[in-house]
Amino acid sequence: MEFPFDVDALFPERITVLDQHLRPPARRPGTTTPARVDLQQQIMTILDELGKASAKAQHLPAPITSASRMQSNRHVVYILKDISARPAGKGAIIGFLKVGYKKLFVLDDREAHNEVEPLCILDFYIHESVQRHGHGRELFQYMLQKERVEPHQLAIDRPSPKLLKFLNKHYNLETTVPQVNNFVIFEGFFAHQHPPARKLPPKRAEGDIKPYSSSDREFLKVAVEPPWPLNRAPRRATPPAHPPPRSSSLGNSPDRGPLRPFVPEQELLRSLRLCPPHPTARLLLASDPGGSPAQRRRTSSLPRSDESRY
């Protein structure tokens, strides 16, 4: 790809590595550039044009690589320039490769979920006019050495059929592990996992889940006391050696004995009928103006004098 500015002066090396800051690389000694020329703006123009060309080649609705996306993400882009072609002495760009670390949830061979953070291939493009000349392998191999990763440790975001053939041809990556997202990983991804990858903690077995706490279990063991006076036990014939002290204050509830089984209603009524009258009740009957029951019977048997007159 050609540009209206001097690409060879902007990128001194064959492969240039740029991060989110998009800072121009160090310039060669003796190279001068007018102060009014914005080198960062030239880099942004190159990234925007490369992203458009890559989206068109992959039949994407919108570019996934641009200068604004680079500035808002911690990605790294490798740009390969053509050192032989010098149209009008300005140089040209062959292609680029964008990578970055991402947190993913991927499935292994046993369909278990794993939280990993691998290096991902996010975008890869070589200009159509120079394809099948070894430029793609040169750029990809440089990235592997720079990032210190193996091909099977990579995760590829929505790879095109051309990229899958490229990985199979040069790195023998053929068998994939099925995933539910857009990323593709190959067999051996979990064999030699890189340090950032980590697995999720295993789920706790159902038997370990407690339906309630230990304090709740102790509470359920306590018997429920029936209401007073049904909870009173029969009095013993001999009083205890040390009876508990009684409270002298009024309004206190009576002393409660130990718990006893619930008394049926019929048995309770029978015990109340057989209970002797209280001494107080006898005094009330004795003080009745009508006298005793025998006296009332004798009085009612006598004839009335008033009735004989009529």
From TrEMBL:
<keyword id="KW-0168">Coated pit</keyword>
<comment type="function">
    <text>Specifically acetylates 'Lys-40' in alpha-tubulin on the lumenal side of microtubules. Promotes microtubule destabilization and accelerates microtubule dynamics; this activity may be independent of acetylation activity. Acetylates alpha-tubulin with a slow enzymatic rate, due to a catalytic site that is not optimized for acetyl transfer. Enters the microtubule through each end and diffuses quickly throughout the lumen of microtubules.</text>
</comment>
<dbReference type="GO" id="GO:0048666">
    <property type="term" value="P:neuron development"/>
</dbReference>
<keyword id="KW-0966">Cell projection</keyword>
<dbReference type="GO" id="GO:0005819">
    <property type="term" value="C:spindle"/>
</dbReference>
<feature type="binding site">
    <location>
        <begin position="124"/>
        <end position="137"/>
    </location>
    <ligand>
        <name>acetyl-CoA</name>
    </ligand>
</feature>
<protein>
    <recommendedName>
        <fullName>Alpha-tubulin N-acetyltransferase 1</fullName>
        <ecNumber>2.3.1.108</ecNumber>
    </recommendedName>
</protein>
<comment type="subunit">
    <text>Component of the BBSome complex. Interacts with AP2 alpha-adaptins, including AP2A2, but not with AP1 gamma-adaptin (AP1G1/AP1G2); this interaction is required for efficient alpha-tubulin acetylation, hence clathrin-coated pits are sites of microtubule acetylation.</text>
</comment>
<dbReference type="Pfam" id="PF05301">
    <property type="entry name" value="Acetyltransf_16"/>
</dbReference>
<dbReference type="GO" id="GO:0005925">
    <property type="term" value="C:focal adhesion"/>
</dbReference>
<dbReference type="InterPro" id="IPR007965">
    <property type="entry name" value="GNAT_ATAT"/>
</dbReference>
<keyword id="KW-0963">Cytoplasm</keyword>
<keyword id="KW-0808">Transferase</keyword>
<keyword id="KW-0007">Acetylation</keyword>
<feature type="region of interest" description="Disordered">
    <location>
        <begin position="280"/>
        <end position="310"/>
    </location>
</feature>
<dbReference type="InterPro" id="IPR038746">
    <property type="entry name" value="Atat"/>
</dbReference>
<dbReference type="GO" id="GO:0005874">
    <property type="term" value="C:microtubule"/>
</dbReference>
<feature type="modified residue" description="N6-acetyllysine; by autocatalysis">
    <location>
        <position position="56"/>
    </location>
</feature>
<keyword id="KW-0012">Acyltransferase</keyword>
<feature type="binding site">
    <location>
        <begin position="160"/>
        <end position="169"/>
    </location>
    <ligand>
        <name>acetyl-CoA</name>
    </ligand>
</feature>
<dbReference type="GO" id="GO:0005737">
    <property type="term" value="C:cytoplasm"/>
</dbReference>
<feature type="domain" description="N-acetyltransferase">
    <location>
        <begin position="1"/>
        <end position="190"/>
    </location>
</feature>
<keyword id="KW-0472">Membrane</keyword>
<keyword id="KW-0206">Cytoskeleton</keyword>
<dbReference type="GO" id="GO:0030424">
    <property type="term" value="C:axon"/>
</dbReference>
<feature type="modified residue" description="N6-acetyllysine; by autocatalysis">
    <location>
        <position position="146"/>
    </location>
</feature>
<feature type="site" description="Crucial for catalytic activity">
    <location>
        <position position="58"/>
    </location>
</feature>
<comment type="similarity">
    <text>Belongs to the acetyltransferase ATAT1 family.</text>
</comment>
<keyword id="KW-0965">Cell junction</keyword>
<dbReference type="GO" id="GO:0070507">
    <property type="term" value="P:regulation of microtubule cytoskeleton organization"/>
</dbReference>
<feature type="region of interest" description="Disordered">
    <location>
        <begin position="229"/>
        <end position="261"/>
    </location>
</feature>
<dbReference type="GO" id="GO:0005905">
    <property type="term" value="C:clathrin-coated pit"/>
</dbReference>
<dbReference type="GO" id="GO:0019799">
    <property type="term" value="F:tubulin N-acetyltransferase activity"/>
</dbReference>
